[in-house]
Specification:
Largest sheet: 6 strands, antiparallel
Order of helices and strands: EEEEEEEEEEEEEEEEEEEEEEHEEEHE
CATH architecture: 5 Propeller
Distance between the termini: 21 Å
Oligomer: single chain
CATH class: Mainly Beta
Radius of gyration: 19 Å
CATH superfamily: Glycosyl hydrolase domain, family 43
Number of strands: 26
Strand content: over 45%
Number of helices: 2
Length: about 350
């Protein structure tokens, strides 16, 4: 697959982002929503922070306390045998399951799509009990003059998907929970189809351990129904662990194209493509049975958590798909691929 990675990768590193408070440090920056705004390429970054900790005897974990309205810090003894620290993303204690970082959303702008200026303060910060452990992985859908931002919220009540709206990327209005636990990886189509809005989503079955792509329908973007399973995992191939939507779908001459992510049984994350009928996106017209893009570069294989390539949005210019992706859960990178190369990789039904 002829994917061209930028020679300047990674284009945004944790060191390029100012912490939101003096006692925090930016641990990673990744998985950004993508759009164009006022002549700029605009990224809505997921920025994950941890409390500064120089004491090897303790482990600190941040969380938003709705009662106090503040982000607070919980401390664990590093030698406590009851606590599982083996996953760098999560602390598992008999009395508490908490993330090791807390994420917020931050705006970055660029004239050339490669060199970005990251704003010094958060655009959206955890603010309620559904955002207890942070807000993650935004997707941006423009409808008329409004930008609809759906994002994953992590909390002890489960992982929900919430919606916010903005017209200027300065003022954000929360619209509440639109998908209940555990449903994430939501991508809202950028136009109505036969009179209704559509969204791809990824519910997780706790009982049967299935994590696959579904499609849902809405009259108003807030209340969703008519849910249908769209794509299941391929148990014998690269996407045999879990799959989920990544980019906001975009229209092509062949139909709606979705760049999605998938992981195998070893949690190796790659990208694939899915082609849906333009008038009925519940009909799958084609699918990639090999990865369009897989973690090959060192910055994609090693980092906070790798090997991982994960994205939340693309731009399409002159048949070039511009991919802004998270690499190894650490940094933001950039790559390009042509629509024709993607179409050549699809198996058509």
């Amino acid at each position: 697959m002829a994917v061209l990675r930028s020679k300047q990768n990674p284009i945004i590193l944790p060191d390029n982002v100012k912490p939101s408070r003096e006692d925090f440090e930016v641990h990673y920056v990744m998985n950004c929503g993508v759009t164009e705004f006022e002549g700029d390429v605009l990224l809505l970054l997921r920025v994950a922070e941890t409390p500064i900790n120089r004491d090897p005897k303790i482990v600190k974990a941040p969380w938003f306390n709705e009662a106090s309205g503040k982000v607070e810090i919980e401390t664990f003894a590093a030698a406590d045998a009851r606590v599982n620290f083996s996953d760098p993303r999560v602390i598992e204690a008999p009395w508490r399951r908490i993330l090791t970082t807390i994420s917020h959303l931050r705006v970055a702008r660029s004239k050339d799509g490669i060199n970005f200026v990251v704003e010094e303060t958060p655009a959206m910060y955890p603010a309620n009990k559904y955002e207890e452990f942070g807000i993650e992985d935004p997707r941006i859908t423009k409808l008329d003059d409004t930008y609809y931002i759906n994002y994953s919220c992590c909390a002890s009540v489960g992982v929900t998907t919430c919606l916010a709206t903005t017209k200027d990327f300065k003022n954000f209005e929360r619209q509440g929970v639109i998908f209940t636990p555990d449903n994430k990886d939501v991508a809202i189509f950028p136009e109505k189809i036969n009179g209704t809005y559509r969204a791809l989503c990824r519910p997780a079955s706790a009982e049967y351990k299935r994590r696959e792509i579904w499609i849902s329908e809405s009259d108003n973007l807030r209340y969703w129904g008519n849910h249908k399973q769209l794509v299941s995992v391929n148990e014998t191939d690269w996407d045999n662990g879990r799959i989920g939507c990544s980019a906001v779908p975009f229209m092509t001459e062949k139909g709606w194209l979705e760049i999605y992510h998938a992981a195998d049984a070893n949690d190796r994350y790659c990208l694939g493509a899915l082609l849906m009928d333009k008038d009925d996106p519940t009909k799958i017209l084609g699918k990639s049975f090999k990865p369009l893009m897989e973690p090959l570069a060192s910055y994609e294989k090693w980092g906070f958590y790798g090997p991982v390539i994960f994205l939340c949005g693309v731009l399409v210019h002159d048949r070039t798909v511009k991919i802004y992706y998270g690499a190894a859960d650490t940094s933001v990178c950039y790559a390009e691929v042509t629509l024709d190369d993607i179409f050549a990789e699809l198996t058509y039904y």
